[in-house]
Amino acid sequence: MEEYIILQSETFKRWLKKLTVSDRLRILTRFERIESGNFGDHRWFGDIGELRFFFGGGYRVYYTIKNKTVVFLLCGGDKSSQDNDFKKARRILQDVPDNPTEDED
Q1: Domains of the chain
Q2: Beta partners for residue 51, in sequence order
Q3: pLDDT by position in tens, the chain (length 105)
Q4: 3-class secondary structure for 1-42?
Q5: Which of 46, 72, 75, 99 is deepest in the core (most CB within 10 A)?
Q6: pTM for the full model?
């Protein structure tokens, strides 16, 4: 199974901080599984993936994969803001370098 490194955009970090502690913990637990290659419920829209969570407001986290090993978290939202969040993810993706590191946004 593939192993991944997870990096977060500043936009994603701000969104995550706004969630309740219990929701944040559940989402972070999912990221631990992703590091081991288990993405769970997700789908792709071209070069942007959508992680689907079935609690809270139906959270969504948008991401991309760079160099086959780096999962770069672009932004998050819920089912009600899905269309706008996807557009935001597309804008953020334009600024993600081909070789992102932990020092970059």
Answers
A1: 5-94 (3.30.2310.20)
A2: 42, 61
A3: 789 999 999 999 999 999 999 999 999 999 999 999 999 999 999 999 999 999 999 999 999 999 888 899 999 999 999 999 999 999 999 989 877 876 544
A4: CCCCEEEECHHHHHHHHCCCHHHHHHHHHHHHHHHCCCCCCE
A5: 75
A6: 0.90
